[in-house]
Structure formats: structure tokens, C-alpha cells
């Protein structure tokens, strides 16, 4: 492969073809540090033309390609396997914001742009890019699009798919498709854009995107509500939607155990209540009218919820600092669980109307088969997405518990399927859930996916072993 690597160096520059172990290590290990793969090299193109040229070289030499952005994924979708035959194609040098159009409310950005930088650029132009998630300081737009990332504002603005109007993509043959159209209506054939969004780099490489922008809200209010049961949380959601309408931007469910873990491992983060409650909801309003209007809506909602016994207490942030403090409670749950030790994560979605029954039923099933396991249940209740995580009993060795992951996954995923849900809501399938999903998709659906894969990537070079077994 020396000839191949030399030609890669001639295409992107010697400094951007990494082969030394010290240089490639960060690209080969997944974010949770559960798996480390091997690669022929890490190649870092700086333009879409260079991406296309590298893909053509990979076709010529039949070298598999693993596209990678910020490498913040949780399902082994952005790291190579342990064969050492693939290159990692890092897109972090494609990090330019090409245009901002405040009249059309769009922004054209390259796929290596960090999400937080895109948010900031939108804000500097007096606009809002609403995608928000815990890894926004390190994840990239290309990765967000490739996994159809969700986050905390899906309730109002939708997943990343809904925030994208057009794409630029390098095909598996090394051709460049320029679909960077900032159009909200375009009925001129198959929707190629949606083929590549959520495909995790298995059908082509996203190199740029036209993203939707929105007016900056005139007011953003954050509140934390305490209640007894998940049923109360659903009742609060119904009240909030009726009172606040489209102003309801975020609605996050957190159990008491989640926040006890946060307090245990991050002592500086404390609940604003004098006592603990079984369940909490963090909600956010984004109002386009005025702060007074937003305050009136929130006050009306909390008053009604208290009077109807839906919630027992509520704390409303009166400053940006207090709002950040409340959001920190939510965002530190995964970090606290990691500090607690190894755990088994599930990113699932269930119809909102069935979430309560799903939690109750699945909790009971897990306790029957794995007594004293500890449930870390939190997530985006407003759009039906739960992070339904399982930590080992306090008296069980973490490694022994993790050894039972397949059995625990089966209990959870079978239950998700019975409730009409999905075993991957926003993290994707990657390699981790590639085989698992075959248990829950029909043969027709799997054949359709395989047909698309074979048609677009006949040599199977694009992120092999991810999403679907070719």
C-alpha cells in the first residue's frame, strides 16, 4: 500500500496523511473508550475536491473509508474495525462557514464545522441555529447530519434532518453532487438529501450543508418542575403544549436517581428545592413576542400545574447564570453516570402516549432478570426519546454486569419493539446496533436498505460494517 499512501500524500499533503501510532491514536478509539480499531492511515483532506480525489484513489486500490467528524458517537459508527485495512477520512479541516443569508434564513457550512461554532456564527448574524446537544463543543455538522442528531430542541425545531435544506456530497465513486440549494420547496424528483442524512457515511460523504436559521427569540425562560410520577410529567407536557404552544422548546424528564448521581459526583451542582422528589422536568420556553409575554405564559402554566396537583414545586431561572445551572443538572447526568462506573446505555424512542407504560413495564422486567440494577432514566420526553440506561447493582462488579449486556439489551429492545418504538432514536446504529436492528425490522425493510447500499456503493467501501451488513 505504499503507492496508495504516497498518492494520498500527493493529494492532501504529507502532513495530512497520518500513520504514526502517536498521531493516529485519537482517531481510532471511540468516545466511550470501549473499543480501539486499526487503520492504514488517517487522511485529512482540506477541500471537497481533495475528498473526491481520495475517494477515487480508494476505489482504485479498493481501500475502505471510515468518514469521521468529531468522533463523539456512541455506537462505534466513526471508528474503524480492527483489520487495519481502512483509512479514517477525517473531515475536520473542512471547517469553513461559506455563506450566511439572513434574508433566506440559511447558512452554508462545511461538514467539519463544530456545532458550537455554527451556533455562534448564527448568533453573530442575529439568527438562531437551534440544534443543541451535550457534545456541541466538539461534534461536527457532518456527524450531526450523518446520524440525524436530535438534542434538546427537537420538540420545536425537529431533528437535524428538519434543519437541513441542501447537501454537498462526495459519492462512493468520487463524484461531487452539489445539492446546496437553499429551497424550502423543490419537487424535482427523488429526495437525495434525505438518503444521505442519517446514513452514517455508508452511502457517501457529506462535505457541506445548507442549514435553516431562525429569528433569535426575544425571551428564553427555563424552569425546573418537581413531581411524583412520569404520568405527572406527561400531564405537565399536555398542559405546557396547551398554554405555551410553539414557545415550548425543551421538555426534559429526569428521575431522582439521575440527579442524585449528579450531586454525588459534581458537588457544586445542587437542586433548587429543599427536598427531593421522584421525578423532575426541565422545560424551556423561547418566545418571539416579549419577555413579559413569556413570563406570563410560564407563570400561568406553573400556577395551573400546582393547582391541579400535577407538580409539587417549581423553580424558575431569573438570570442566564441560573438557567445554565438548571441545564447543567441535565447535561451532567451522562458524565455522572460515567463517574459512577461502567453502564449499559440505551437510546430509544417510544410513542409519547406509551412512555409511562414502557418505563413501568421494562423496569419490572429488568428487576426480575437482573435484581437491584439501577435505572438511570432521562431524556427528551417531549419527542418520545429516552436515554434508558442501566447501571449495575452497588454490590456487583461492573465487569461482571457488563458481561450481561447482550441479555439486558434484549430485554430493553424487545420491550421497545412491543411498544412500537425504535432501538435508536438519535445516536444511530453504527457497528454496535447493526445486527441488533435486524431483529426488529422487517425483511422487506432490510432488503430495501441493502438495495440502496449496493446500488450506491457496489464495492462496499463506504464505512463498511456500519448500519447494515452488506
From TrEMBL:
Named cofactor requirement(s): FAD
Q: PROSITE patterns this protein is in?
A: FAD_PCMH (PS51387)
Q: Where is the FAD-binding PCMH-type domain?
A: 35-216
**Cited InterPro entries:** FAD-bd_oxidored_4_C, FAD-bd_PCMH, FAD-bd_PCMH-like_sf, FAD-bd_PCMH_sub1, FAD-bd_PCMH_sub2, FAD-linked_Oxase-like_C, FAD-oxidored/transferase_4, Oxid_FAD_bind_N
**Alphabetical GO biological process terms:** respiratory electron transport chain
The source's superkingdom equals Bacteria
Keywords from the named record: FAD, Flavoprotein
GO molecular function (one): catalytic activity
Q: What family does the Swiss-Prot or TrEMBL record give for this protein?
A: Belongs to the FAD-binding oxidoreductase/transferase type 4 family.
Listed name of the protein = 2-hydroxyacid dehydrogenase
Q: Give the originating organism.
A: Noviherbaspirillum autotrophicum
Task: Provide the organism lineage as a comma list.
Answer: Bacteria, Pseudomonadati, Pseudomonadota, Betaproteobacteria, Burkholderiales
